[in-house]
Amino acid sequence: MDDDNSSLNSLYRSLARLEYMVYRCSIPSLAEEMIVPFKIKLLLTDIRMPGLSGFELAKQLLGDFPELVIYAYTGFYRESFEQEAQESGIKKIIPKPLDIRELNNLIKQELKVKKQTIIFKD
Description:
This protein is of the alpha/beta class.
């Protein structure tokens, strides 16, 4: 999930090239509606978004979908984010710029499969 369409589209293209089923979403309230029908296993979200932070989104989604894996990314990393991530259920915070190879390795390690459906919001 990302409110920046440029970042959203760039990340989408990079992950799609790796043959993941990727769905874009720039509106946090729609993420919940996409999880069940698209069998989402992992969500990538920006931390800083207008209206609803990545931490708030994680708490909301994990309340209904506790098996969902959530990674957050940010261009404005602070040490306090680690505590907030732990409290909200976010598995990992990834600093921008994202290294796609590293992200791919994280996803494969987390999901323990070659390809899965993921959704991201920036």
